[in-house]
Amino acid sequence: MLFLFVFLSSCQEQVDPVLEEKGEMIVKFDNYVGNQTMVIDNVGSSNFRYANGKGQSFNITRFGYYISHVKLEGPNGELFVDEMNASADASQIKGYYRVVQGEPDTYNIHLKDVPAGQYNKITFTLGVREDGIQEGAVGGILDRAAGGWFWNWNSGFIHYMFEGHSPASPRDEQRLRLHIGGWKSIPGVDGNPQRFFDNNVEVSLLFDATVRVNRTMRPSPHIHMDLLKVLGDADFALQNNIHSPSEGVSFAQRIKNAFVVDHTHQ
């Protein structure tokens, strides 16, 4: 009986660490304009590298978007939900990321403490939800005083930012400014049209293959984002200066289809 007790205890000590094993996943975002890699030009540049669906040429001088509420799922019930925390202390902010074209350090999202197992799906929010952020001081990439993309407490954050130039734009210096955001749906009153919309977008993507996470395996799905799919049939002669939630609704509705998993490194 003593031998049996020692044997069972030994087995138990070997199993527990396996059940608690965790690893990492690195999610990489690559931005494209159609089949062309996105390139940032200087403000004022007349080097028009791209064309929209209407054949109007344009370039890009500033581009990026917020990612939050990341979730991983697997075929056997595996689940990882990225921890969320908004704080005035930048070092304490968790679960909020901003991908900024031209800043390679922002392209990779490191997900830590992912339970060991298989995963084949990722879900995230394109944008910053109202829940979890209290009116007051927030730090890091959420801090408007330090460059956070924030409008006000009704409109919320700019989730998706595109700026550039196009000969089709009648604005000074042929400027384009498309700021897509908004985190509250507030109906219009007294016959006035609705101005505030929740333009957060939930994106769910299947990996091209099931990947495994453990202490030694750190997979990396590469997600491609295509700006042309967000622009859709936009006419830069008319839609060249989007700065409110209501103006951005049609663009926000197209964002979900702009993201695809291109490939995954195991």
TrEMBL record:
InterPro entries: MbnP-like_dom. Residues 23-243 form the Copper-binding protein MbnP-like domain. This is Copper-binding protein MbnP-like domain-containing protein. It comes from Lunatimonas lonarensis.
